[in-house]
Design brief:
The complex is a heterodimer of chains A (704) and B (275). Chain A folds into four domains: 2-210, Histidine kinase-like ATPase, C-terminal domain (Heat Shock Protein 90), CATH 3.30.565.10; 223-305, no CATH class; 316-479, no CATH class; 551-704, Orthogonal Bundle (Helix Hairpins). Helix content of chain A is 59%, strand content 9%. Chain A has helices at 2-7, 37-48, 55-72, 115-123, 130-142, 206-210, 313-345, 350-355, 357-367, 370-385, 388-396, 399-420, 422-440, 444-625, 633-689; strands at residues 25-31, 90-96, 100-108, 145-151, 155-163, 179-182, 197-200, 226-229, 237-239, 266-268, 294-297. The longest helix of chain A is centred in the last third of the chain and has 182 residues, at 444-625. In chain B, helix 2 (74-92) packs across helix 4 (130-140) and helix 4 (130-140) packs across helix 6. Chain B folds into two domains: 7-72, no CATH class; 75-256, no CATH class. Chain B is globular, with a radius of gyration of 20 Å. The mean pLDDT of chain B is 88. In chain B, the strands form three sheets. Chain B has a three-stranded antiparallel sheet with strand order 1-4-3, with no helix packed on it. Chain B has a two-stranded antiparallel ribbon with strand order 2-5. In chain B, strands 6-7 form a two-stranded antiparallel ribbon. Classes of the chains: A alpha+beta (704), B mainly alpha (275).
């Protein structure tokens, strides 16, 4: 594939970036289980949708890659029902450049792999053997190109390349064979080439990418609205979760916006209003249900809260009731006025008076023993109203308080009665009966007496009103007094509490001070005890001082001794050197001169010897020619010269030996000098290490 | 780990934090120097250095003291500890088996949530000190085996501290690039600690976990294990892990970093090493 080969930057490296151009982007994720492969492929496809990749093939590659790679790993067996959990993650990379998408899956493998056999197995039509061959066969089938990188016994990466729709495919191109690269051993693995960006799937706006379209409003039903009883046709709230309440998650998972609310899997209808957990109320007509079993069925989202109309029968009922009551009130008011008018114009009749004595007595009983009757009634009513417990309680109270309470109670009851209008009712009744009697009775006196009676009754009523009001006011005054007393007492109590608190605080402070004082006392005690030890420490201190002085003296003596020794050594060295060097040099000089002289003598003698030998030979030849007597003298001369030569040689050798001895002595003296210097140094160090001793002063002359 | 103040006066009690001794587990590295109060001397005396741990015998011996005291430096350590507990909660959360409608979060959702917790831990200038990563890793992962810790510490305290810091950094790095699995992180930490303590040789491997370990070693060399780690330390690196880290840190800087938050440090008056 020539177009892919141009973007291939590295075959010998792991990672999809090696098979894509420099401007590629790589999306990656580390998978520890296969549970969410669907979501991952959805996300990747949502992200790469615009690139124009074949969605089916891309999904197939992603799914096959992840699942089969997972199965190939040396994984630990998972729990029943759960996906296999690998000890190491499966790295999924999805890279994209302008022409291709590369899906790479990288996982650990423990088995050894034969590259050639694997290629043949992929290309052959025979069914694949084993999970690994299945993976490769599947990837080869759905991809345009397959690259396999294997580090034997370690790591495997399978990269499937897909050509994008925008990229132009070369005409008549055949599908390339799978490429298998074995890394390690002969071929070294390299670093992956750089990509423009590596993007973790978590950094994508996955909430937006995976979100579906906006909900469409449900239209109203075309069959119309009606009220149904006992049937709930539509539920607006459908909960996906079994629990009634949504548990609030503490850590937000989802979306780029950190303020996003926890995801709720609640699907609702038109409006997102809160509905009760048990309600099946569906919005519709505003009429309230007549009974609990009826429900209104509607599709429109109308408001339930409509105002009640005046046509409502209940409204009408209430209105009529109101009118009746108003009428009664008016009648009562009119009746009172008429009774006053009639009472002033009333005439008593004799005939009806006799016949109405019973009525009058009855009336009197009703009216005149009014106080007694009222008291009795009050008592009776009070006895009816009060519970036995209250009565017992009232009996158990002290007498003054009981009396006060009773008067208060009576006054309030009286007021209540007056307010209720019981007295008025009785008076009205009396008035009406009087009017009846007046009509029957003709006597003026009786009429006048009846009017007077009514007037007195009215006055009595007014007096009672006044008394009740005065009683009420006195009750209120007493209440005020009691309240002020209560407030005063409360203040007193508060002040006393405050004083108690202050005293308690002062007490605790005093206790703290006491504890601190006791601590200080302990400290002083320990200090005084310390004084007893102080003399002991003083003695120790003095002893140590003495030791210190003694050691100082010793050190000073040693340093002075060292200085003396140093001086002696220096002088000895100087003397030794001067002597040694002078004599040695002088001897050396003399020996050298002697040597030279002897060498010269030797050479002269050699020359003489040569001359002599030449002469001897001449003489020998002459003597052979002339005769033999000269031959006897030449060997003697020769022997003499030979002896001299030997002696000279001996002297020369002796002189040489002497020179050697002197040079050796020179070396020995130098070594002795060095040794002496080292000893001086060590003495100095020892002197300085003595305790309390000062460093020895640099005295004496330093060795040369 | 070396620290400056071995003894504290009695007046320092106002700033110290009490820690009941029974809440301290053996082999748990300390967050700060640990002191006990000596009533006779009226002083606080240190018994453990930061990152050091108590053995069960040591805890038994100190039983009479009842409480340890930690300096107020622990306040700067607590955000790392609480972030670790948050990450642990996320990684350990499982849905109720009886409610099949609830699914666990996807790997990318989990990685996103984890980064939201890790991002604010990078201080101003996107830097972080390795000591605090050790606190984070100790809270997130299981405690390292006690025998291993004791053996390495006896061999050399410096080696122990160096291994602890490197293994913690490896865990922190792995979380950043999406390795959100507790079992994996625990195994990674033990492996890195062991290799750092016993000096396993570096082999060129390209498995994802090996790349993480190599990147961790490269970015936190042995000679500067206390120096702060910075985001720009990944700039210019060519390996995949460094490129991935750069990308994630870019998001941290854009969305999650809190510039007003001071950088937590062990040096200076707020720490335990006086400079």
């Amino acid at each position: 594939m020539s177009d892919v080969s141009t973007s291939v930057r590295s075959m010998n490296s792991f990672g999809v970036s090696g098979l894509l151009s420099e401007d590629c982007k790589v999306y990656y994720d580390n998978l520890f289980n296969t549970r969410h492969v669907g979501k991952i492929s959805d996300l990747l496809l949502a992200r790469l949708r615009e690139a124009g990749a074949d969605e089916l093939r891309l999904r197939a590659l992603l799914l096959f890659s992840v699942f089969q790679a997972y199965r190939c790993q040396p994984a630990a067996p998972g729990e029943e029902g759960e996906a296999v959990i690998a000890p190491e993650p499966v790295l999924l990379e999805c890279g994209i450049d302008s022409d291709h998408i590369a899906v790479g899956i990288s996982f650990r493998i423990s088995q050894d792999v034969d590259g050639e056999k694997l290629r043949e197995a992929i290309l052959s039509e025979a069914p694949p053997v084993g999970t690994f061959e299945e993976l490769l066969a599947s990837l080869y089938r759905y991809s345009d190109r397959l690259v396999l990188r294997i580090q034997p016994g370690e790591q495997v990466e399978a990269v499937s390349l897909l050509r994008l729709a925008t990229a132009s495919a070369p005409a008549g191109e055949e599908k390339a064979q799978p490429e298998i690269v074995l890394l390690g051993g002969g071929e070294e693995a390299h670093e992956a080439p750089k990509a423009e960006d590596y993007i973790e799937l978590a950094d994508l706006d996955y909430a937006r990418l995976l979100s579906s379209d906006a909900t469409v409003a449900v239209p109203p039903p075309p069959t119309g609205e009606f009220i149904a009883h006992g049937v709930s046709e539509l539920e607006e709230a459908v909960r996906l979760r079994a629990q009634a309440a949504v548990l609030e998650q503490k850590y937000t998972v989802g979306g780029l916006n950190p303020e996003s609310s926890p995801q709720l899997f609640r699907i609702k209808g038109e409006k997102q209003e809160e509905l009760g957990s048990a309600s099946t109320l569906v919005k519709g007509a505003p009429q309230e249900p007549q009974d609990a079993s009826s429900t209104l069925v509607s599709g429109a989202g109308e408001d339930t809260t409509r105002a009640l109309s005046e046509d409502d029968p209940r409204v009408q009922l209430y209105l009529t009731k109101i009118q009746e009551l108003q009428q009664r009130i008016l009648d009562l008011e009119q009746g009172k006025a008429e009774a006053r008018v009639e009472a002033s114009q009333a005439t008593a009749t004799a005939e009806k008076l006799a016949g109405s004595t019973r009525v009058i007595t009855g009336l009197l009983k009703k009216v005149w023993p009014f106080r007694k009757r009222q008291e009795q009634e009050e008592l009776e009513e009070g006895a009816e109203q009060l519970a036995p417990e209250q009565v017992l309680k009232e009996e158990n109270k002290p007498s003054a308080a009981a009396e006060e309470a009773e008067t208060v109670r009576e006054a309030t009851e009286l007021l209540a009665e007056l307010e209720k209008g019981k007295l008025d009712m009785t008076l009205n009744r009396a008035k009406s009966e009087l009017n009846e009697i007046k009509e029957d009775v003709s006597s003026r006196k009786a009429k006048r007496w009846m009017d007077g009676l009514m007037g007195e009754l009215v006055q009595e009523k007014a007096r009672l009103h006044e008394l009740a009001q005065k009683l009420n006011s006195s009750i209120r005054q007493k209440e005020m007094e009691f309240r002020t007393k209560e407030i005063r007492l409360q203040e007193e109590v508060r002040k006393r509490d405050e004083s108690i608190r202050q005293k308690a605080h002062a007490l605790t402070r005093a206790k703290d001070q006491l504890s601190q004082m006791s601590m200080q006392i302990d400290k002083y005690k320990s200090a005084t005890q310390g004084k007893a030890e102080e003399s002991h420490f003083r003695q120790k201190f003095q002893l140590s001082q003495k030791l210190l002085l003694a050691s100082k003296d010793e050190v000073s003596k040693l340093t002075s001794k060292v200085d003396d020794l140093k001086g002696q050594l220096a002088s000895a060295q100087m003397a030794l050197k001067s002597r040694g060097t002078n004599t040695a040099s002088m001897e050396l000089q003399t020996l050298r001169t002697k040597n030279e002289r002897s060498v010269r003598q030797l050479e002269e003698l050699r020359g003489i010897n040569e001359q002599l030998t030449a002469r001897i030979q001449q003489l020998a030849t002459r003597s052979e020619k002339a005769g033999k007597p000269e031959a006897a003298e030449n060997p003697k001369k020769l022997e003499a010269s030979m002896k001299q030569l030997a002696v000279a040689q001996k002297d020369n050798e002796q002189l040489k030996l002497r020179v050697e001895e002197l040079s050796r002595e020179d070396v020995r003296l130098k070594s002795e000098l060095k040794r002496a210097l080292l000893e001086v140094k060590s003495l100095r160090q020892r002197a300085s290490q003595r305790p309390g001793g000062s460093k020895p002063e640099d005295g004496g002359t330093k060795a040369a | 780990m070396d620290f400056s103040r071995r003894k504290l006066p009695k007046e320092a009690a106002q700033t110290l934090r009490a820690c009941p001794l029974h809440t301290v587990k053996p082999y748990a590295p300390m967050l700060a120097p640990a002191y006990v109060y000596m009533p006779r001397n009226e002083k606080f005396v240190s018994v453990k250095a930061p990152l050091d741990f108590f053995t069960p015998e040591e805890l038994e011996r100190l039983k009479s003291f009842e409480s340890l005291y930690l300096p107020d430096f622990v306040d700067s350590v607590l955000p790392f500890r609480s972030a670790a507990r948050g990450v642990l909660t996320l990684l350990q959360w499982r849905p109720d088996r009886n409610d099949p409608s609830v699914l666990p979060p996807a790997s990318y959702e989990l990685a996103d949530a984890v980064l939201r917790l890790l991002g604010p831990l990078w201080g101003r200038d996107t830097q972080i000190e390795p000591f605090f990563l050790a606190v984070f890793a100790n809270e997130l992962c299981e405690l390292l085996p006690g025998e291993l810790l004791t053996e390495v510490r006896e061999q050399s305290v410096e080696t122990y501290e160096s291994a602890m810091l490197l293994s913690s950094w490896a865990v922190f790095l792995a979380l950043h690039i999406g390795h959100c699995d507790l079992g994996f992180l625990n195994a990674l930490r033990v492996r890195v600690f062991t290799e750092a303590a016993y000096g396993a040789g570096e082999q060129r491997r390209f498995a994802p976990v090996d790349e993480v370990i190599s990147a961790a070693r490269r970015s936190l060399p042995a000679e500067s294990r206390l120096a702060p780690l910075r985001a720009d330390g990944f700039v210019g690196q060519t390996d995949r892990v460094s490129q991935k880290m750069l990308s994630r840190l870019r998001r941290v800087i854009q969305d999650l970093l809190r510039p007003e938050r001071p950088v937590a440090t062990i040096f200076g008056p707020g720490g335990f090493v006086d400079v």
